[in-house]
Specification:
The protein has 390 residues and is an alpha/beta fold. The protein has helices spanning 8-34, 40-48, 67-79, 86-101, 104-116, 235-271, 283-311, 315-344, 358-367, 372-383; strands at residues 121-124, 140-144, 147-158, 165-174, 183-192, 198-202, 213-223. The two termini are 35 Å apart. The mean pLDDT is 92. Strands 1, 2, 3, 4, 5, 6 and 7 form a 7-stranded mixed beta sheet that branches. Helices cover 50% and strands 15% of the residues.
């Protein structure tokens, strides 16, 4: 595992990505979202510089790094006010799963495009009736000759309209030798966007973002055997190979957002003068901002630990640390945004300062991809060994 002090290479990557982020910034992303577009220019520039595929294997056009490097990219773009949400999904989840478990054909087909940004992939696990209980996933895959037939529904799936395919989590029916009901095991399938029977509808969200959320329907979707990623019997291992990077990247997303808000508040507190001194001289203003900074730094430290464990191949250790990192970052982000808006007073709610909309956006890190309560369940059961209530 690497040192908790960042290497010179990581520092250089931060500096370079921060420079790219500053060229675009918060107003660019806000304008794109208002106009109903997508951050295509920023995505293309990040791809050209090798940032989108920094975690993917070099033989397929990636940077040969890991989730540690990809998390740095997302955090720094977020700190500049222009995070790319699809980085969490396309290179981090889908790219990682295909690189680790995909067939040679799947790697050749998808990884170069995911690395250079010319192709994107969405990820579909959440279902309307399952919520955080992945054991209740009802999207099923059954064999029909050499093909697979998928049926089910998914909800809150990001970016399906722009993704070339969606990596769908289904469950395969495995016949039981004892004659009992068939066991359902999780499996991952690549479903191209225009596959017959694969429908999507936009979910109307309060959150204003360039990446839209979708409900998906899979109505007897026929897929070739080559659509199955990896081994039919290694479903859970493959699933968590994608979910741990998702948590780490969500933590990076939250830390970046918190840093962006905090920087705006600090800048304001240094210059806003109502009495003799700038308001930042008052401890009632300064101390909560200092506390927000400390919490963001602590969350980043756990995120670095989680990424280091994952990149070292310690899936179990990474699972615990990734959950903790996501929890800590979500809490730190919400508090940093709240305190930043509060520091600006009425100005914190104006479009000019661009902080008010982050009140809603910051909640995403508490809710997705797994709620803070489910992380507390994980830690109480897995780490502390306490009994389950469910």
């Amino acid at each position: 595992m690497s040192s908790t002090i960042e290497s010179a290479e990581h520092k250089a990557l931060r500096t370079a990505v921060a420079a790219l982020g500053q060229r675009y910034g918060r107003e660019y992303l806000a304008r794109v979202a208002r106009e109903g577009g997508h951050p295509d220019e920023l995505w293309a520039d990040a791809a050209k510089l090798g940032y989108l595929g920094v975690n993917l294997p070099e033989e397929y056009g990636g940077g040969g790094g890991g989730i540690a490097e990809l998390a740095i990219v997302l955090e720094e773009l977020g700190a500049a006010g222009c995070p790319l949400l699809m980085m969490v999904v396309s290179p981090a989840i889908c790219g990682t799963v295909i690189a680790r478990f995909g067939t040679d054909e799947q790697k050749r087909t998808w990884l170069p495009g995911l690395a250079d940004g010319s192709r994107t992939m969405a990820f579909g696990i959440t279902e309307p009736d399952a919520g955080s209980n992945s054991h209740r996933i009802t999207t099923t895959a059954r064999r029909d000759g050499d093909d697979w037939i998928l049926t089910g529904r998914k909800v809150f799936i990001s970016g399906v309209d722009i993704a070339d395919a969606t990596l769908i989590v289904g469950r395969t029916e495995t016949p039981s030798s004892s004659g009992a009901a068939p066991a359902l095991k999780p499996c991952l399938f690549i479903v191209p966007r225009d596959t017959p029977g694969f429908g999507r509808s936009v979910i109307d969200m309060e959150l204003q973002a360039a990446e839209k959320q979708f409900e998906l329907t899979l109505d007897e979707v026929r897929l070739p055997s080559s659509a199955l990623v990896g081994d039919e019997d290694a479903g859970l291992l493959q699933l968590f190979a994608g979910l741990n990077p998702e948590r780490i990247m969500t933590a990076a997303f939250a830390i970046g957002m918190g840093r962006y808000a905090l920087a705006r508040a600090v800048e304001y507190a240094k210059t806003r003068q109502v009495w003799k001194e700038p308001i930042g001289a008052h401890q009632a203003v300064a101390h909560p901002l200092a506390q927000a900074h400390i919490e963001l730094e602590l969350a980043r430290l756990m995120t670095q630990k989680a990424a280091a464990l994952y990149d070292a191949g310690d899936d179990m250790g990474a699972g615990e640390a990734a959950n903790m990192a996501k929890y800590a970052a979500g809490e730190a982000c919400v508090r940093a945004v709240d305190q930043s808006v509060h520091t600006l007073g009425g100005n914190g709610l104006t479009r000019e300062y661009g902080l008010g909309s982050l009140i809603t956006a910051s909640r995403v890190a508490r809710i997705a991809p797994v709620s803070r309560e489910m992380i507390l369940n994980f830690v109480s059961h897995q780490t502390l060994g306490l009994p389950k209530s469910y």
